[in-house]
Amino acid sequence: MLELKTLFLFLITAVAEILGCYLPYLWLKKDKTIWLLIPAAASLALFAWLLSLHPAAAGRVYAAYGGVYIFVAIMWLWLVDGIRPTAWDVVGSIVALAGMAIIMFAPRHS
After folding, report:
1. Which terminus has fewer CB within 10 Å in the chain: N or C?
2. Closest CA to 13 of 69, 80, 90
3. Global pTM value
4. If you write DSSP's letter for every residue of 7-74 in order, what string do you get?
5. Which pLDDT tens digit goes with each residue over 7-41?
6. What is the rounded distance in angstroms from the CA atom of residue 21 to the CA atom of residue 24?
7. Domain boundaries, the chain
8. pLDDT score of 43
9. Mind listing the pLDDT tens digit for each residue in 37-89?
């Protein structure tokens, strides 16, 4: 159950981070309103707060989170940007998720 909670929390965290970066991108590159910076800032604050909810050491959380971020970014590429991931994108995402699982769920000795 801890594994599912951790993965779910990482998924929500990644969406918050990507959204917080995507909204300024829309303003800067797609001539959208500057008001997008307000929800972007809120999304990035949510991202930072969500990362703090993990009980593991911060460095371990940050390292493992990167694997989930890669997976979510590739899904964003497909679902939001409308670009179908390549086989290499999928393989890379699976490798990244495997790395996250090893870092977060490997047995630890105190």
Report:
1. C
2. 69
3. 0.91
4. HHHHHHHHHHHHHHHHHHHHHHHS---GGGHHHHHHHHHHHHHHHTT-SS-HHHHHHHHHHHHHHHHH
5. 999 999 999 999 999 999 999 999 999 999 999 99
6. 6
7. 2-105
8. 98
9. 999 999 999 999 999 998 888 899 999 999 999 999 999 999 999 999 999 99
- H/E element holding 75? helix 58-79
How many Cα atoms are found within 13 Å in the side-chain-facing hemisphere of 52? 6
Per-residue tokens: 2: 């801890």
Give the total residue count for the chain. 110
Per the listing, tokens 């000795």 go with 109
